[in-house]
Amino acid sequence: MSFEWVSYFECATCGELARADAVEYDPLGYSVCPLCGERSGPLASVESDPRAAEAAE
Fold first, then answer.
1. Which residues contact 7 (CB under 8 A, 6 or more apart)?
2. Which of 1, 2, 9, 38 could anchor a disulfide with 23, C-beta 3.0 to 4.6 Å?
3. Does residue 37 come out as left (phi exceeding 0), alpha (psi in the -120 to 50 range) or beta?
4. Which domain of life is it from (predicted)?
């Protein structure tokens, strides 16, 4: 019998649920939401997202 252990990522901002192996990670290893681009990690709330700046223009 084979078993595949699957873990999931859930975005705290938009609620997106995705397989952890399908999620991108930043250089420090923190996840980046595939739907909204929100970053997790200790500095996520103080860093500006370049995509957000482009959307505001």
1. 19, 20
2. 9
3. left
4. Archaea
